[in-house]
Amino acid sequence: MSENAETRIRSENFLKVTRSRRNVLWSGIGALVVVVALFLFPYFVGPGTTGIMVQGLIVLTLASMWNLLAGYAGLVSVGQQGFFGLGAYFVLIPAMHGVTPWAGLFIAAIGAAVCALPLWWLVARLRLGYFAIATWVLATAIMLVIEQVTSIGGGTGEPLPGLSGMDPAVLTAYTYWAALIVAVLAIGGVYLLLRSKVGLVLTAIRDDERAARSSGVRVGTARLLVFIVAAAGCGAAGGVLAIEQLQVVPGTSGGVFSVQWTAEMAFAVIIGGIGTIEGPILGTIVYMVLQQTLQSYNAWYLIILGIVAIAVAIFARRGLWGTLDERFNIRLFPVGYHLWSPGETRRRKRQAAVQAAP
Amino acid sequence: MAWVNAIIQGVLIGGLYALFACGLSLMFGVMKVVNLAHGDLATVAGYIGVGIIAVSHVPVLWSIPIVVVLMAVLGYVLQRSLIQAAITRGELTTLIVTFGLSIIIENGLQQFFTANSRGLGVGDSFITASFSIGSQITIAWFNLSIFVLAVVVLLGLQQFMSASKYGRLIRAVADDREAAQLSGADYRHVFGIAAAIAFGTVAIAGISDGMVTTLSPTIGTDTILLFAFASVVIGGLGSLWGTLVGGVVLGVAQAIGAQINPSWEQLAGYAIFLLVLVVRPQGLTSRGASA
User: Percent of chain B beyond pLDDT 70?
Assistant: First the structure.
């Protein structure tokens, strides 16, 4: 009884509700510095390193999208390679008609999002495992349809026209900037989405879907929105891949419709920490380190990545970032709310918790 | 007559698809686990068969029981360790673990056996022997025996689940885990048994596929898992006969698609799958609500 009363008094007098316990300004400036530094990157390193960074940024974009799907909306998609591949073709097809591939990136994002709408209607009522395999079937079906069209390369693929005149080093730098813009927009978009009212809905679904439903939350609409946003992000990433490789090759092994793309994004999210914006970033770094160290051993990086992801999923479900967050209580992208009293430090709070325990 | 022939070949290959599907269906029915590594485990079974035949020179048909036993043991061990650990942590973890297994197995097979495909020859005379009905319909004895094998496996499984002591135990645990636990059944052990049976059927499916077509590291996800899933959805959850119907419908759709245009084979199968998903999400044979 007495504790309840005290809480009420405290809430009237001292408690504050803020997005972050620290000043958001500093993490904002930090993020800006990182992005500016990344933009200047091609001026300081060779095209080889820049090319590797492009791959990393593609995976980062994909991972952020998969995190939004699986971590917040409970949509475990194994078919994101379908939108990724569509994005690549939405850059290729206009380029074959004279549209510059850079503008094609916008078409890729919008086109993939438009395609996501009817596909959502097919899989909307499926849950978890069923949703997972059904999206996989959809991705395969999309590939089979595209492979029928011989004018865009059929089953063998097609080189990307429109960029042949450029100096390779300049082209690599431009590709890098395009990939960086796509990745920054993807992460920024996820951040803004989660801070909006939809974010509140998504967090409620993430924590307890049944409770969210019974409180009148429109779970279906929020899921549709996430599915479309994720399709747009994966489509743009696929467009970047088309520009990076200067060709689009379909097919499930090694092509744009390979399930390995979804494996990479999912494993990066799980290792980094699902359900946080920081997790995919950390996971992508782990992915890149593994991939670069083991690149002479073919697909071994993917095998090791899979083993690490399984281990993390079982032994440390919140991933690397979740484990860090638990210890140090840091958030670079504050999307939740903190309830706290300004005079309270964490040490005092911990002491209070120790005293409260019997 | 070409169409009738296509439909008959479709029905026969549909038996193989039902074989693919029954392990997936069993694992989902009992443990509520959607095993994304299902197809790759079947591929592993096929490769174990290749290995056994290469080392011991036993005939292909004799390798089937050996691989079934090996896979059943693997199923029990995997269920009691990794999959059980995943189940207790929730459905997302289960999906991640089985998806991880799928990717590990597929790339592992590629590392050890290269991407080349290889066949499981039964002996030439049996593969090529066939009989004809009329002038245009030719039925290969081999395809017919795979279909019969599928029906026997499904029938045996149905009989086992409805009449045997262990079958009743498995159904009891599937219905209400806690109540079965209170009655003295260790549900983890029962899950292990169910997984062993499912993996046994996966072994038969993998070897059959190796005999009908060829084995390569990617067939697990490219065909087996997706065809199995399509068969389960088309047929409807809950009954093994539904699975057979689903497999046959998928096989016939593919055969008709291939008859119209050879490159439409898979596409026609998925079109039927999507149609059922939209028009009749509970499946063709199921009367209940959708999953």
Answer: 95
